[in-house]
Each structure stands twice: as structure tokens, then as C-alpha cells.
Design goal:
This protein is an alpha+beta fold. It has two domains: 3-167, Butyryl-CoA Dehydrogenase, subunit A, domain 3 (Up-down Bundle), CATH 1.20.140; 173-288, Nuclear Transport Factor 2, Chain: A, CATH 3.10.450. Helix content is 56%, strand content 14%. The chain is built from 13 helices and seven strands. Strands 2-1-6-5-4-3-7 form a seven-stranded mixed sheet, with helices on both faces. Helix 2 (29-44) packs across helix 3 (54-75) and helix 3 (54-75) packs across helix 7 (137-144).
């Protein structure tokens, strides 16, 4: 067996771990697969003779790839995305068994991904590698170009934001309803400034594959881009309870076709999920409210 074949075997042994790291870094199975593939290309071009811990080396490589991807994503965060971005967890086409994708998706809930998306790339990397994969700070530091002490501070800041979002009680239902009503009114009247005022600066809009087929973008980041998407629209959407929380639904003829699921923090909308898949809609607890 030559060295390249040996490397390929060792890489395949670590593929599952690398994909798990990449998914937690990027929040998309397709992008995680892209990162893993790029990691293999970099490995195949590297001199690994002096590498004692190939698994640790590969974790570093995939982390660098993910950091580059996060920084690139952040640089275009305020721009509406016309092209479809990679699909969310559970709809990937990377050749992995659906059961494996489901397990990976379940291991990182949507709420956590929303919070992780709000972190700076270096903060996200430090938090994910240290808190989720127990990588020491002295190994993370060279990846983010900081000292170990500064890297520890990055992870600490990220940890406070993640834990704070997990422990702060959600807005009461009446307040949620007021926010959703204001959002729908601003959308219908094309009031861009009012929409921006209701949205967190780093708000994320995501759509499932059925909503994308109906014309929605897979993923949009930033208050300006999300406000642009909704300004002058949602005219037929009605307020609703979605699994007990304030949301909205488009239900022509009384049949739910698209559900708007809102996530809020500190009185701002931090995420909007559009669901149009019929099977998913049947699983939701929906109650249409009076306008």
C-alpha cells in the first residue's frame, strides 16, 4: 500500500468525525460535505511525515476550511441571496445514509444553530472545537491567529451568548403576538424601516425544500436582506399559534400551505423558518388566530 492509499484509508476512518465538526461549524450538511472534501484535497497535498496524531491534524484542517467558509459567508451576509444555498440538515445529497443525517441533525437543534449563526467566525470555531470536541486552546489558537489566552476569551464570550440564549425565558405569548402582528403589518404595507426595527441585525431566514420550490430562497442573513424579502408581501398571511408560540400561516381556502415560525430574543426576531412540506405541516400544532 503506497502512502496515498494509506492516507485515504485513514481519512475515511475520520470522515464521520470531520463531518460532525463541519456541520456544527457551518449548520449545513451540504456545506459540511464540501468542507470535508476540501480537507481531503488539502491533506493529499500536505507533507504528513511528521504528523503524530493524524486525527487531530485532520480536525485542524477541516476547522481552517470551515473558518474560511464562515468568513466568506459573513462578508456577504447583508446581501439577498438569489442562488439557492446548500440545504439544511436532513435534505443533504452527500451520499450519507438518511438515518445518519437525522442523527447528526438531531444532535444540534435549530435553536442552537440560530445562536451559533450569530457568533463571529472565530468565536464559533473556538466554542465548537473546545466545548463540543474538547480541543485544547493551544491547538485552536494557531487556527484563529490568536494566543491561547485570547482564544480562551473567544470561547468564553461565545459560551455566554449560547448559554444566555438557552436560559433566558422566551417572551410571553402576548408580546410574541404583538411582534408578529407588527411584522405582518409592516410587511403588508411595505414599511422597510419598521421591518428592520423588528429584526435582530443577524436575523436568519430559512426555507424548507418545498418552500424553495415555491420560490423562496433557501437561506438569507441580515436584517436588511430579510426586510427586503418581506417588504410588500405576506399580504395573505394570518397570525397563528405554531406549537404554542406566535407565528403566522398562509392558508388559502383554510388549508395551511406555508407556516412562518418565528424565534425571538430580547424582543427581536432572530430567526424565521418557512415550512411548506405537507408532511412537516401535518406534524405542527397549528391554530389560526383572528387578525
Amino acid at each position: 500500500m503506497d502512502e496515498q492509499d494509506w492516507l485515504a484509508e485513514r481519512f475515511e476512518e475520520n470522515r464521520g468525525h470531520l463531518r460532525a465538526v463541519a456541520y456544527r461549524m457551518l449548520g449545513s450538511l451540504s456545506e459540511a460535505d464540501d468542507a470535508v472534501q476540501e480537507s481531503w484535497l488539502r491533506l493529499s497535498r500536505s507533507d504528513t511525515d511528521g504528523v503524530e496524531n493524524l486525527g487531530g491534524f485532520l480536525t485542524t484542517v477541516v476547522a481552517r476550511v470551515c473558518l474560511d467558509m464562515l468568513r466568506s459567508r459573513r462578508s456577504r451576509r447583508e446581501e439577498p441571496l438569489d442562488a439557492h444555498l446548500p440545504e439544511a440538515a436532513g435534505t443533504g445529497t452527500g451520499g450519507t445514509e438518511p438515518e445518519d443525517e437525522a442523527l447528526l441533525a438531531d444532535s444540534v437543534g435549530p435553536a442552537l444553530l440560530v445562536v451559533l449563526d450569530m457568533l463571529a467566525p472565530a468565536e464559533r470555531l473556538a466554542f465548537v472545537l473546545h466545548d463540543m470536541f474538547a480541543v485544547p486552546f493551544d491547538q485552536i489558537a494557531p487556527i484563529v491567529g490568536r494566543s491561547p489566552a485570547a482564544t480562551r476569551q473567544l470561547a468564553s464570550r461565545a459560551r455566554r451568548r449560547v448559554h444566555g440564549a438557552a436560559t433566558v425565558p422566551g417572551a410571553d405569548l402576548a408580546h410574541q403576538r404583538r411582534v408578529v402582528d407588527a411584522f405582518l403589518a409592516a410587511s403588508r404595507h411595505g414599511d422597510f424601516d419598521a421591518l428592520v426595527a423588528l429584526l435582530d441585525p443577524d436575523v436568519v431566514l430559512r426555507a424548507d425544500s418545498a418552500a424553495v420550490q415555491a420560490g423562496a430562497s433557501t437561506e438569507i442573513h441580515g436584517a436588511s436582506a430579510v426586510a427586503t424579502t418581506f417588504a410588500g408581501r405576506a399580504r395573505a398571511a394570518r397570525p397563528a399559534l405554531v406549537n404554542g408560540s406566535a407565528g403566522a400561516v398562509w392558508a388559502p381556502g383554510g388549508r395551511p400551505r406555508v407556516v412562518f415560525d418565528f424565534t425571538m430574543s430580547d424582543g427581536k426576531i432572530v430567526a424565521i423558518e418557512l415550512f411548506a412540506d405537507p408532511e412537516r405541516l401535518r406534524q405542527l400544532d397549528l391554530a389560526v388566530l383572528d387578525d
